């Protein structure tokens, strides 16, 4: 596949509030790139995307987008001012003949185009923004957490669409399975530096750990050298009347070098403390049935949850996962059947809507206010699993700065709100942990910590999630809710469930159709063509290959981040040549497809 130079950034510097986000950043987005953009929450991933999209202006540096090329950006909180419905927003940049693309994307992503902007939830708005981007099909797609608020079916649809697209894309996501399936290169933002590796996300964690190990080794060597020089300086006072000032200055330089090293951000100090153990049987559901009108949530459902189980509930949005969870917890009555709860249960719940956080109160007040415990929020202490701790100190355990303590919760990012809710949750003792979509907005390192925490938690976990990798790592039982009241228990996580269930009728039909299409394609013969057309069909592959080679050479030339500033005329000519060859290549590929179709009759 031909590769087109889509975006070149040179010498980019950006500063917010005195602290540099990036400095002297060079970055080239190559044709056909499928890039994972990774980094800790707050490292600048979304900011970098906005600079690439032209929505945030850098303090210095240049960004070059070749003529005729387009960049599309799906942001986390899209603005829809001036539009009445989600569909009107999603179709706003399309020609009348292309409106079907939004309808198709809407079916895959499960959003209602007729939904009023005023009544649409944040998740519906994000799905509309994603449908808009997919329908517009820009040359470069910038996707910021596209799987948030998507169920597993919609994630699968999006994954298939991105696998088949000819566009390049840069992708921010916490969903490991999604990143592994789609990416072939990785951009890693770490302390203001952007590194690139020509391997997909699958290889990222090994790469990251190797870089950190090398840093630790260099820091260790530097510390040893400083100790050695410092010992010489002290001993030299008594051993010599005149000290070697050159070595003293060298020691000062070494210390400045060490102080100039940017420390890696620590990890959140997650901990869960179980209450006295619950009884061996935690929850038992017998003949559970629930429905709303014609919609059945469960029919004659049985489940036994024992102490220490990790039970995951999966299925499409709207199938009733949260409703079933509420029935098991005694928060909602079934139409039929009974739920028996075990003894000594102490429940802590993480809700996907973040309703336990008051957006108008500060982080401080949210932590020190607990209506259930009769705590009003006037204290500077928070009770952490029965022990008092200063609010600021506890917030620092979860990577919040002291300056954020008095800020309102509404000013936090999605990932920060998730961390604050985890802080509130983990301050309480529990032996039954209920997690409704806990992985949304968390960075990969924090997800690792949460998984390790659940592994060592001595209580029982009920979990709702669309993150396939997280389900595989955590769940010991998976309850698959597939609609029409069908809810079936499978041993293990997501992959175990798929293996035990086997392919559905729809999956079998799709596989059969693809197989037949492949056989039909292989059986094509060159027929129905004139002599000239037949000769042209035979010669086009060689012409396409030659054009691809020429484009690759020009790309190699333009990959030099200093070419634009050092030789602007040469850069311009190379850019024009690339655009010309790309257009010729596209025409040749289109001609080949038309002749191939004609040959197949």
What does this structure look like?
The chain is globular and about 80 Å long. Helix 3 packs across helix 4, helix 7 (204-239) runs antiparallel to helix 8 (245-260) and helix 17 (531-558) packs antiparallel against helix 19 (568-599). It is 42% helix and 22% strand. The protein has 601 residues and is of the alpha/beta class. The two termini are 26 Å apart. The model is unreliable at 238-243 and 521-526 (pLDDT under 50). Strands 5-6-7-3-8-9 form a six-stranded mixed beta sheet, sandwiched between helices. The protein has a six-stranded mixed beta sheet with strand order 14-19-20-12-21-22, sandwiched between helices. Strands 2-1-4 form a three-stranded antiparallel beta sheet, with no helix packed on it. The chain folds into four domains: 7-207, Rossmann fold (3-Layer(aba) Sandwich); 208-260; 281-501, 3-Layer(aba) Sandwich (Rossmann fold); 531-599, Helix Hairpins (Orthogonal Bundle).
CATH architecture of the largest domain: 3-Layer(aba) Sandwich
Alpha carbon gyration radius = 29 Å
Strand count, sense and barrel status of the largest sheet are: 6 strands, mixed
Flag low-confidence runs: 238-243, 521-526
Could you say what the CATH topology of the largest domain is called? Answer: Rossmann fold
- What's the number of helices? 19
Overall structural class, as computed from helix and strand content, comes to alpha/beta
Oligomer: single chain
Percentage beta strand: 15-25%
The 3D shape can be described as globular
Euclidean distance between termini CA atoms: 26 Å
Total of domains? 4
